[in-house]
Amino acid sequence: ENPIVNASANRQDNHYIVNMYGGLARHPVMTRDGYLMVVCHEIGHHIAGAPKYWNWASNEGQADYFASLRCMRELFT
After folding, report:
1. Are residues 5 and 23 in contact, defined by beta-carbon separation less than 8 angstroms?
2. Which is deepest, 5, 12, 48, 54, by most CB within 10 Å?
3. What is the pLDDT of residue 42?
4. Whole-number Å distance between alpha carbons of 76 and 60
5. Cα dihedral value 70, 68, 31, 25, nearest 10
6. pLDDT confidence of 2, banded at 50, 70, 90?
7. pLDDT tens-digit series, residues 18-65
8. Residue 1 has what pLDDT?
9. How far, in Å, are 3, 36, 47 from residue 70 at the CA level?
10. pTM surpassing 0.70?
11. Rounded to the nearest 10 degrees, how much is the dihedral formed by the CA atoms of 42, 47, 50, 51?
12. Nearest alpha-carbon partner for 41 in 2, 3, 71, 6
């Protein structure tokens, strides 16, 4: 029921967390592929590597690069 059109990644101890808010899933222009790209981007913050900020999160550009180069390719292989 959350209307926020957004997603985020965070960590709590050794738990990697991806938050996908309801407004994103229900947005009228959101597609399955678009939603998967957002999931891949948020996963990228956890595992895409340097450059990073906050000592653990890959930065936005690196998360985008990971999402398109690695994650989406694996999903659609």
Report:
1. yes
2. 48
3. 98
4. 22
5. 80
6. confident
7. 999 999 999 999 999 999 999 999 999 999 999 999 889 999 999 999
8. 81
9. 30, 13, 11
10. yes
11. 10
12. 71
Terminal alpha carbon distance of the chain = 33
Q: Coil, strand or helix: which one is 15?
A: strand
46, 16, 37, 77 alpha-carbon torsion, rounded to 10°: 90
CB-based contact 59:49 (threshold 8 Å): no
In the 3-class helix/strand/coil scheme, how is 28-74 assigned residue by residue? CCCCHHHHHHHHHHHHHHHHCCCCEECCCEECHHHHHHHHHHHHHHH
